[in-house]
Amino acid sequence: MLSQLIFLVLALALRVRCNTYTWAYSTYLDVEFSFSCNDSRILLTDDEKVEWITPQHKTLGPRYNDSDYLVRDSIRTNGQELVIKRVSNVHSGIYVCMVYNNNILRKRAIRGLNIYKPLYHNLGEMYIDNIIIAVITCVVFLVPLISMCVIYKFRYMSKEDKKRKREMKRKYHEMISQHYGQTHTNDPHYEDLSENVKAKDVNGLGGYDNPVITAL
């Protein structure tokens, strides 16, 4: 009994799923696609006329033709097929097929195109719009933020900050000068060289003067 009940529930679920999306279709972008108004529920007869209503609520009669749509006749029925010349996101939505017999509405049929999303050849096509939006959003957010930080750092410094910065530079230069001065002072070669420069010999020559050799 339980197994029969489970089988019945699964069968009903499968039937509902199969019937839910028989009227809806998915296709790639930038390709031609066509709807047929005729199916097992409509059963078009001779001399009936068909009109189509687009997702933009535009009515297309038999032999309608523009840059987006073409309505084609079948052998027996006027306007039986709707052709979308080049599918784009604008063409996504619900299409209604209106069947008239002697100018009296007999039946309606619903067709859907890319209700959820179109088909894609690869993941790059699917997420390219989201990637572009994310990049633009980051740029729009980061550019003002970085600009504000730069302006705050280099323009809106208080007098105390400027004075502190100058004082740090002065101490840095003093430290460098003291370091080099102390290094030369503690060097014994530097002291000998200084004494040699200052020393005078008996002939009045300095430490760096070249001695004159007199021939005997």
UniProtKB/TrEMBL annotation:
PROSITE patterns cross-referenced by the UniProt entry: IG_LIKE (PS50835)
Keywords assigned by UniProt, alphabetized: Membrane, Signal, Transmembrane, Transmembrane helix
InterPro entries associated with the record: Ig-like_dom, Ig-like_fold
TM annotation in the entry: 131-154
Segments forming domain Ig-like: 31-111
Record-linked Gene3D superfamilies: Immunoglobulins
Organism superkingdom: Eukaryota
Signal peptide interval: 1-18
Protein name: Ig-like domain-containing protein
